Amino acid sequence: MAQTCLKCLKFTMCAANFLCFMSGLVVLGFGIYMTMTFKMAAITPALANINVAHILIITGIIITCVSFLGFLGALRENRCLLIVFFSMLFILMVVELSAACLLLIYEHQISEKLEKELKEGLKKAKGKTDNGTILTDWDTVQKNLHCCGVKNVSDWEGNVPKSCCQYNCHTNPKYYEKGCFEALKTFFEDNFLTTGITVIVLCIVEVLGMCFAMTLFCHISRNGLGYKL
Questions:
Q1: pLDDT mean over 59-87
Q2: Overall average pLDDT of the 19-35 stretch
Q3: Of 23, 24, 77, which is closest to residue 212 (Cα–Cα)?
Q4: CA 117 from chain center: how many Å?
Q5: What single DSSP character describes residue 176?
Q6: pLDDT given at position 128
Q7: Within a domain: residue 152?
Q8: What is the number of structural domains in the chain?
Q9: Which helix (H) or strand (E) holds 167?
Q10: Is 147 left (phi over 0), alpha (psi -120 to 50) or beta?
Q11: Cβ-contact 86, 217 below 8 angstroms
Q12: Within a domain: residue 157?
């Protein structure tokens, strides 16, 4: 009975890690696609190197590497790979919880930094006009979030892009009243609960993964299977 349960645990770990591996490849591919098609340099110059696309790429690489170790360790019943898998999951959980705490503690400083970056990005974007076919980063943000400028339309100092227009764009244009800084804050606040739930679910999955890995590791150690390759 015990052997049957352990075999079930082994194949469950293999299946779960395989699905995670495929998910990591999808996240990695999507991050590369975003890097090629959507750049943040025009909006937040100093933060361009840590935009969402780069975060997705890093996340995809981490997921694929960790899940591959878990899959291979469970499949080959390799103690070394299992303990590395356990350690990496523990480190990831600590990093996630630390990042969540830091975001809560330094929320005000992050907000001020974002506003400053938006203003610098808008200064660089002033004077540039789109050709009707290529959307700039500011056009994309303003259209999707229904906002204009950093605080309001006056930030564009008369050279207002078409993406700020809400209606009557050709005769008497009516521009969005909300600034993009406020719109971004609202967007993150609206998704705060979803983000928190996601972090909690990830931590639960990681704890389960560590429990499974340690259970399999202890079983292999008791049976003296060694470090099989």
A1: 89
A2: 82
A3: 77
A4: 20
A5: -
A6: 57
A7: no
A8: 1
A9: strand 165-167
A10: beta
A11: yes
A12: no
Q: Does some domain include residue 183?
A: no
Q: How far apart are CA 203 and CA 179, in angstroms?
A: 35
Whole-number Å distance between alpha carbons of 121 and 46 = 9
213/90 Cα distance (integer angstroms): 12
User: How far, in Å, CA of 73 to CA of 67, rounded?
Assistant: 10
Q: For the chain, percent helix, then strand, then coil, each to nearest 5?
A: 75, 0, 25
Task: Give backbone dihedrals phi and psi of 167, rounded to 5 degrees, phi first.
Answer: -165, 170
The whole domain housing 40 covers: 2-109+209-222
Reported as a single tens digit per residue, the pLDDT across 155-179 is: 887 778 888 888 777 778 888 888 8
Contact 156, 126 (CB under 8 A): yes
Query: Is 70 inside a domain boundary?
Result: yes
Two tokens, residue 140: 């994309």
Residue 158: what are its φ and ψ, rounded to 5°? 90, -30
The torsion region of residue 167 among left (phi > 0), alpha (psi -120 to 50) and beta comes to beta
Residue 179 contacts residue 150 (beta carbons within 8 Å): yes
Q: How many CA atoms lie within 13 A of 94 on its CB side?
A: 6
Q: Phi/psi zone of residue 40: left (φ > 0), alpha (ψ -120 to 50 degrees), beta?
A: alpha
- What is the Cα–Cα distance from 27 to 6, expressed in whole angstroms? 31
Is 201 within 8 Å of 63 (Cβ atoms)?
A: no
> Which residue bears the tokens 């203003």?
119
